[in-house]
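can u pls check wat happens w/ nicotinamide-adenine-dinucleotide
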Amino acid sequence: MGTTETQAPSANGAATDGIAVENPATGAVIAHVPDLGPGEVRALAERARAAQPAWAALGFDGRAQVMLRTRKWLMDNAERVIETIVSETGKSWEDAQSAELVYGASALSFWAKHAERYLADERVRSSSLFVKGKKLKLRYEPLGLVGVIGPWNYPLTNSFGDCLPALMAGNAVILKPSEVTPLTSMLLAEGMRAAGLPEDVLAIATGRGQTGSAVVDAVDMVMFTGSTRTGKLVMRQAAETLTPVSLELGGKDPMIVLADADLERAASSAVWSAFMNGGQTCISTERVYVEAPVYDAFVAKVVAKTRALRQGVPSDFGAVDVGAITFPPQAEIIERHVQDAIGKGAKAVVGGHRGAGPGRFFEPTVLVDVDHTMEAMTEETFGPTMPIMRVADAEEAIRLANDSPYGLGGSVFTKDVGRGEAVARRMQAGAVNVNDTMINFAALELPMGGWKASGLGSRHGAGGIRKYCKQQAILVSRLHPKRDVHHFPYKAKTSRRLLRGFRLLWGRGGRD
Ligand code: NAD
């Protein structure tokens, strides 16, 4: 397998060659990884392409066995995996367990079990007269080499997780993890190798944007997760070679709280979905709209729950609720959004500041008196902030929720679940939860993908593995005359007779 080696940090912690990986919660440099150039990526791609046919030939059962042995490896090495995720992201142990380790284990199970069914040959029936009596089939074949490019917020779930359906479909994969969090991908590749994944089928290409760009040029399909800005660059570059892309991009997920909501559940859900993973989740709650009659009560509950959160260095299970800010520039963006809102009249009723160093923290922050002139309500903050806005009614909430270039997820809280679903159907987002937040991601049967600037395509479900395949239509003609009626030579008499037949068939205005 084409994994890169972790290099030891130099004695004084300064960067040697390659990329320094930092623990965001302590500020310490914990490793160095190579920054691969285009030539090295091409070499990985060549080896992966050479390894792919044998991997595909192993069949679904053979590949499923590797998945299930990897699942066992994951459970056997759970603490090591959690520690690695925590060390490079600064998230809490619980967030690393519930949203990464558990996702990995369930995704390994899910694709091992369902890939064959999703990619089985399909018998197709047609109403066309021209194909009567013929056998029609749709089949799927692996694309060959898939490039997965991932972000830093979920190094297991959103990088390694997307490799699994691509691999189960019979592809080789080059994974380009974020330069901020490459260690988890390298460890999991080691786990897959220990579980019997053949050499070179999964290559980890560590590096920065330039390495990602080289991956785009080297593969047959790109699965990209990251910012909308980079997603557009990837799509533009992929257009040059007509390489298909699937894009999972940024979000600004709204929560709507209606006056009849269970406020205790709504407030607990809001606090969890805004602050888990330090708010660095693409589908985190980024803005809340509350109907006026319950606004004050909702804010009071949120404030109390937020004040109770413990933030700091995540040293073990139960140590902290909210961890660090993983990516240095993100702290600037969070601070800018909070300052911009306060400058325009908002109030930070909890938090509002960076935490004390040497690690990089931002206090869980609740903003009130906010509106859509503020960046905190319109741009992706991707940090532990929850701006809450009072609205007159559900109509205003829906209008404001949809007033966004993004459309990833959202939620609505009400005791009237029929009304909740009706509101959900009017929200412009790829996934909406009623009386819940984010948990749709755990249902791997349910597609997850963004509308508008939040993406193109989706992960999970049948579409989440078929996108890693070429589809082929096969038509088999068993019983046939020597010459069909539409073959040459064209004869006027036959054509006129056919036209009379077509009129008989389609000449009525109503349903057949
Ligand atoms: P990013 O766009 O900065 O980087 C993502 C990846 O792209 C990194 O590996 C980076 O090295 C690589 N890259 C950078 N330039 C490239 C180029 N020109 N060609 C190819 N690759 C290139 O994103 P990020 O800051 O790492 O992640 C945060 C973003 O990801 C947020 O916007 C978040 O909402 C989004 N995200 C979306 C989902 C989803 O499922 N929709 C999930 C997680 C994160």
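The pocket of nicotinamide-adenine-dinucleotide is lined by residues 149-154, 158, 176, 178-179, 208-209, 212-213, 216, 225-227, 230, 233-234, 248-251, 282, 327, 380, 382, 408, 450, 455 (CB under 6 Å).
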